[in-house]
């Protein structure tokens, strides 16, 4: 009888190991940054070999040839390159590849680190003061964003040029925000965390996280579902090394819903034909390929007051059907 009881206990222990699993989810560590310099030895659609190292190319990898936007077919074996990469599971993935075939790279610099200070014309990264100007490009996940997107505490990669100890940024890549707010969709739910579209890391919840649903009010974490459209605010906790949600709002959202909104243009991306309004910073307004309106994106500038007629493509993107610009005249003093 004792042998039977012992056998049952052993079986229960074994089953608990196989069935329980890690319900809290394994924390995904923040990326390690590596900079690879050298001659290009081979190149394909999905990878590039620089200085003896194989580097993955993804859809959000930014490619620059002699300082200008490029595509993979523009890059040739023998050119000199600087690749700023993330080391993910001992595999290098390029976030920015700078290629040169005419210009010297001896007067260029690349710095990665934490932003400790921001002013109107400079940022401080890893103790180095770096100038910024109207030509400085800022990218988040491969897409151009406003300089105002950079926050103290963000982890960034900065590439630029220097002369006589004066450093000027040409390109700034935001690798991770210390704090952020976004509209997106839930893609995974664990016992105490969620994952969302277009964000690589788990976002943990605790008893201080506010969870609400539009039209209902406060709801429980267990009421969340994969696919829910949400607006989420999160911050990076340096103690735990995790992102923590301060608030999650489940939105009442229907695709293709018509929208009419007015506001002030705060950012224009000519590459992707998108713009943002200062009144709705979480929404991207996009010009479609078949846009037939009279006013084109090249007719607009930051600060313009506009009325946009369009429709929702997803929870964070509105397709522009027409746009009207308002010219505000300031009356002259008598």
Question: What would your notes on this structure say?
Answer:
It holds the Pfam family DUF5666. InterPro entries: DUF5666. The chain folds into three domains: 145 residues, Copper binding periplasmic protein CusF (OB fold (Dihydrolipoamide Acetyltransferase, E2P), Beta Barrel); 72 residues, OB fold (Dihydrolipoamide Acetyltransferase, E2P), CATH 2.40.50.140; 69 residues, OB fold (Dihydrolipoamide Acetyltransferase, E2P). Helix content is 6%, strand content 52%. The protein is built from one helix and 26 strands. The strands form four sheets. Strands 10-9-8-13-14-11-12 form a seven-stranded mixed sheet, with no helix packed on it. A five-stranded mixed barrel has the order 1-2-3-7-6. The radius of gyration is 24 Å and the shape is globular.
CATH superfamily of the largest domain: Copper binding periplasmic protein CusF
Beta-strand segment tally: 26
Mean pLDDT: 84
Radius of gyration: 24 Å
Pfam families: DUF5666 (PF18914)
InterPro entries: DUF5666 (IPR043724)
Protein name: DUF5666 domain-containing protein
Features:
5-stranded mixed beta barrel; DUF5666; about 325 residues; OB fold (Dihydrolipoamide Acetyltransferase, E2P); DUF5666 domain-containing protein; 26 strands; mainly beta; 3 domains
């Amino acid at each position: 009888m004792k042998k039977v009881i012992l056998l049952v206990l052993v079986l229960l222990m074994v089953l608990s190991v196989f069935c329980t699993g890690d319900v809290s989810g394994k924390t995904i560590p923040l990326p390690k940054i590596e900079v690879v310099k050298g001659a290009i030895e081979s190149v394909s659609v999905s990878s590039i070999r620089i200085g003896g190292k194989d580097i993955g190319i993804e859809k959000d990898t930014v490619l620059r040839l002699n300082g200008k936007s490029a595509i993979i077919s523009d890059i040739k074996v023998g050119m000199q390159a600087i690749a700023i990469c993330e080391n993910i599971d001992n595999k290098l993935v390029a976030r920015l590849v700078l290629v040169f075939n005419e210009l010297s790279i001896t007067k260029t610099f690349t710095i990665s680190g934490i932003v400790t200070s921001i002013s109107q014309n400079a940022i401080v990264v890893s103790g180095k003061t770096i100038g910024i100007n109207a030509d400085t490009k800022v990218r988040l996940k491969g897409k151009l964003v406003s300089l105002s997107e950079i926050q103290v505490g963000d982890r960034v990669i900065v590439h630029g040029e220097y002369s006589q100890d004066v450093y000027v940024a040409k390109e700034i890549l935001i690798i991770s925000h210390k704090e952020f707010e976004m509209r997106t969709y839930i893609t995974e739910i664990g016992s105490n965390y969620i994952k969302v579209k277009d964000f690589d890391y788990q976002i943990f919840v605790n008893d201080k996280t506010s969870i609400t649903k539009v039209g209902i009010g406060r709801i429980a974490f267990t009421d969340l579902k994969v696919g829910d459209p949400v607006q989420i605010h999160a911050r990076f906790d340096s103690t735990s090394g995790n992102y923590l949600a301060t608030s999650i709002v489940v939105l009442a959202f229907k695709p293709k819903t018509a929208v009419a909104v007015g506001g002030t243009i705060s950012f224009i991306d000519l590459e992707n034909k998108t713009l943002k309004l200062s009144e709705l910073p979480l929404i991207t307004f996009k010009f479609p390929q078949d846009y037939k309106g009279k006013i084109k994106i090249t007719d607009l500038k930051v600060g313009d007051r506009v009325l946009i007629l369009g429709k929702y493509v997803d929870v964070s993107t509105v397709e522009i059907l027409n746009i009207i610009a308002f010219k505000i005249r300031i009356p002259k003093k008598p």
